[in-house]
Write a structure and sequence with these properties.
heterodimer; A: Immunoglobulin-like; Purple Acid Phosphatase, chain A, domain 2; six-stranded mixed β-sheet; five-stranded mixed β-sheet; 20 strands; B: mainly beta; Neuraminidase; 3 helices
Chain lengths: ~350, ~375
């Protein structure tokens, strides 16, 4: 049996250097997604050679994986038109694509696009690994002694040195959801050497800016045998009236039901978030674990589980205060470590 | 004459043309959702809400008023408005958060859940005296109220209790119910794992599980209780082995009327009280179906593999259903005959349209 391991930090670091040096054509100038909607650096695809990953584009195009070293791997794609006209691509990862981080490139009729850090090829997935949890980054906040960007850079540096395999960013990425704040967030996020998965917070939801930068509010992914589900808790008080994300939550929760561990991540948990969501996620098929933020503090002793009982929960203090948390995921269980504070760069 | 007769026969197989008004939410995002009223025939639309995070509108039984939650400085208030946009006003509340309004059968009162989420109490607003009263004796953890119409359902429960226990818990509440009415609500129940939900009978002074725990074994999570117009049946959803099913409780006992391994939820009675429209995932994505509870036969209404159809509401004649569909890429209001035939897109606004509610009948 082959050894199960995640992307080597050395390879990732080498890829990162290459990526940073690659002229970025990704996204529009304001950071909005362009031809390629997903995957992107906030919801990347994780795949193994010979397996497929899913992509959504504004129109059908020639697709390829671009390694930081310059190697290009054309993708075999089967297309399906989605309601509204978006194009869904099922992309086959070439057998000869080595493990590492890739940009997804698309070109059609002289139009080109690349989403950097959007595809990660794994030879195998580890059975035991760590997840870095970062929340409440608040890029653009001006009430701290240091700039929010400086603090976030230190947090990312700590994440990169942590040995974690993936990183979850649970909302309030920006302080007021301005396009420029998202652009500044992206600039620093793209220095992370891990696959980075984001979800929106209440501070991010000005107009449709979050959707334009990261796409869907609800999605799921597999990391090896574990299923992760990102969801939005912005609608809260009228969530049951709208029913907007209920179907996605139901379908995605069912999709990851066979998982060894099912892990939800969202900006905040509050009992008033809408009963339909809670029934789906915490009652009918309870998630094993919920990761969230919002409160800018750790969970209290009586907040180890959601009130419905089964789903364990961890709340991590805010990245704007320099904090992050590592969560160990092993065959025996999910164990959040104590939050750590990123050392300040000189 | 043969051809015209054939045409007449074909025509008669279809429902009468859809008519009346549909209230719904429309906006570019949650923050600016506004209650609108559309004339189904002409398509003319009127914005009647605040346009400030409005919630789902609910018609009064005579179709003369709409009630809906909307953002306030402290949380959410219940607002009232005529379907032509006139006489709009906010109810003065004791609690900051007020949601899920439901009209009493005579249209004189509104019940709603007040305060934050699962710790809510049931409040009743009297539209005549403009006063607000806490119901359930102040019991917390009550949500999603619906008014009980008549005593038929409660007499059924009473008879079941008496046949199994020799006495009835709820009969002692009948005098109060005859005076001020009764509500069914979903209430929190503590169990060994944490919390679950059950259906509660709520009066002004008290709240008790509708069916005593010993007659309702298991650890089910109930939600979305709806009483049919005839007053003798309730539909509600509960989990059975992990997935949602719709149950009907009547004089014949409790029956699972959807029984599918995928989730079925959100039951809505037809105006005549004979059919239930509901949402189901039995075709992969969320779709609208209808079931005849007596035979448990299920019929598709709006089904698509790549898009969602949800939130059904019946036309007053019971021949059409309106619902939300995102088959064009964003949520719009559609209507179709109950057979699923003749689907028609009512809203073409590129933003968001949600929560349709068909006016029960024209205001006098």
């Amino acid at each position: 049996m082959k050894e199960r391991r995640a992307i080597s930090p050395c390879i990732a670091a080498a890829l990162l250097v290459g990526m940073v040096c690659t002229p970025s054509q990704a996204r529009d100038q304001d950071g909005a997604l362009a031809l390629i909607q997903t995957p992107n650096c906030g919801a990347p695809a994780l795949a193994q050679p010979g397996n497929t990953f899913e992509a959504v584009l504004a129109e059908q195009a020639d697709l390829g994986l671009t390694a930081s070293t310059g190697g290009v791997f054309p993708l075999t794609v089967s297309w399906q038109t989605l309601p509204g006209g978006m194009q869904h691509a099922s992309c086959l990862v070439p057998q000869n694509a080595p493990p590492g981080m890739y940009g997804l490139t698309a070109s059609v009729r002289g139009r080109a696009d690349v989403n950097v850090r959007s595809v990660y090829v794994f030879e195998t997935f580890p059975e035991a690994y760590a997840v870095a949890h970062v929340t409440d980054v608040h890029i653009g906040a001006e009430d701290r002694p240091r700039t929010s960007e400086a603090i976030f850079r230190d947090v990312i540096k700590t994440v990169n040195e942590s040995g974690a395999s993936i990183a979850l960013f649970t909302g309030d990425l920006t302080h007021s959801g301005e396009p420029d704040q998202f652009r500044r967030f992206l600039e620093i996020l793209d220095t992370c050497i891990l696959p980075t998965f984001v979800c929106p917070g209440n501070h991010d939801r000005q107009s449709l800016n979050y959707e334009q930068v990261f796409g869907p509010l609800v999605y799921y992914f597999w990391f090896g045998e574990d299923g992760y589900l990102a969801f939005d808790t912005k609608d809260y008080n009228t969530a049951d009236d709208l029913g907007r994300q209920d179907a996605d939550l139901q379908v995605f929760r069912r999709a990851i039901k066979p998982a060894r561990w099912s892990i939800g991540f969202t900006h905040r948990y509050e009992p008033g978030m809408g009963m339909r969501s809670q029934i789906v996620l915490f009652l009918d098929n309870p998630l094993d674990f919920l990761v969230c933020g919002h409160t800018h503090r750790s969970n209290k002793p009586d907040e180890t589980h959601v009130p419905w009982g089964t789903t364990a929960m961890t709340v991590t203090p805010a990245a704007i205060d320099g904090y992050l948390r590592l969560i160990e995921v092993t065959p025996r269980g999910i164990r959040p470590r104590e939050p750590v504070r990123a050392p300040e760069s000189p | 004459m043969i051809i015209p007769l054939c045409l007449l026969t074909l025509y008669s197989m279809h429902a009468a043309a859809a008519s009346g008004h549909i209230a719904y939410l429309s906006g570019t995002e949650q923050e600016d959702l506004c209650v609108c009223v559309m004339d189904v025939v002409s398509g003319a639309t009127l914005r009647v809400g605040e346009g400030d995070r409005d919630g789902a509108p609910v018609w009064s039984p005579d179709g003369a008023w709409l009630a809906y939650p909307s953002k306030s400085d402290a949380g959410m208030d219940i607002h009232l408005v005529r379907p032509d946009g006139s006489e709009r006003r906010a109810v003065v509340h004791a609690h900051p958060w007020n949601r899920q309004p439901r009209w009493s059968p005579d249209g004189s009162r509104l019940a709603y859940a007040a305060d934050d989420g699962i710790n809510a109490v049931i409040m009743v607003y009297d539209a005549v005296t403009h006063t607000e009263t806490v119901w359930g004796g102040g019991k917390t953890g009550l949500m999603r109220p619906v008014w009980v119409s008549g005593m038929k359902l409660l007499n059924i429960v009473k008879q079941i209790e008496e046949s199994q226990h020799g006495e009835s818990r709820i009969s002692g509440m009948f005098d109060e119910i005859n005076g001020t009415g009764a509500i069914l609500a979903v209430g929190l129940v503590a169990n060994s794992n944490g919390l679950t939900t059950d259906i509660f009978l709520v009066t002004e002074n008290g709240a008790t599980p509708l069916v005593p725990p010993e007659l309702n074994p298991g650890n089910y999570v109930d939600w979305a209780v709806e009483i049919n117009r005839k007053g003798g049946m309730i539909a509600f959803e509960s989990n059975d082995g992990g997935d949602r099913e719709i149950f009907v409780f009547s004089a014949n006992g409790q029956t699972n009327v959807t029984n599918h391994r995928e989730a079925d939820w959100n039951p809505v009675w037809s105006p005549d009280g004979n059919w239930i429209a509901f949402e189901s995932f039995r075709n992969a994505r969320r779709s609208v179906y209808r079931v005849y509870p007596e035979t448990i036969r299920v019929f598709p209404v709006a089904v698509a593999k790549n898009s969602d159809n949800w939130c059904p509401t019946w036309s007053p004649d019971g021949e059409w259903l309106a619902f939300v569909s995102d088959r064009t890429g964003n949520p719009d209001i559609w209507i179709a005959e109950v057979t699923g035939e003749n689907p028609r897109q009512l809203t073409t606004y590129p933003g968001l349209d949600y929560a349709p509610a068909w006016q029960p009948r024209k205001a006098p």
